[in-house]
Design goal:
Helix content is 30%, strand content 28%. The radius of gyration is 16 Å and the shape is flat. The strands form two sheets. It has a four-stranded antiparallel sheet with strand order 2-5-1-6. It has a domain of 77 residues. The chain has four helices and six strands. The longest helix is centred in the middle third of the chain and has 20 residues. It is α+β, with helices and mostly antiparallel strands.
């Protein structure tokens, strides 16, 4: 779901790409599998309302630097596999009462998924520690941490 994407996520990944620290793009099925003893987790960032847009420009600049350092650190530790911001707009597709798929625009006032990172770590505890350090938490976003793949 994406009706609003924070400029922070877009700028971080752009900034990181320029510095050679960006998360990689889509991977082949063979490289998506976690290494021996490793697990992959998705860090999903959700914006509540217009949190990013309410910030003063100086605060945004400081946060962009913080994001850049965070991404660089994850890359240097070898745990970041990929990440991308999600664009604005989109639709919700659900079946109507007759079972026919119906698309409706996303509600711009809902909590919005703004981007994701895929990390590969040795434990859920390590994944939680990394997710808890995500700069998104410092400016009104919430972070969900989910295991990648079926776990049951």
């Amino acid at each position: 779901m994406m009706s609003r994407c924070t400029t922070a996520v877009l700028a971080v990944l752009s900034l990181s790409a320029l510095s050679g620290c960006a998360a990689t793009g889509p991977q082949s099925a063979s490289t998506q599998r976690a290494g021996a003893g490793k697990m992959q987790f998705a860090i999903l960032m959700y914006e509540r309302g217009d949190a990013w847009y309410r910030l003063p420009a100086a605060h945004k600049d400081a946060l962009l630097k913080q994001y850049g350092l965070w991404v660089r650190d994850l890359k240097q530790k070898g745990v970041l596999r990929e990440g991308n911001p999600l664009g604005r707009g989109g639709v919700v597709i659900a079946s109507d009462a007759n079972g026919t798929p119906d698309a409706e625009p996303l509600d711009p006032n809902d909590t919005t998924l703004t981007g994701y990172f895929i990390i590969e770590v040795s434990s859920a505890v390590e994944a939680e520690r990394i997710a808890a350090s995500c700069p998104a938490l410092t400016h009104g976003e919430v972070v969900h941490l989910r295991p990648v793949g079926h776990t049951d």
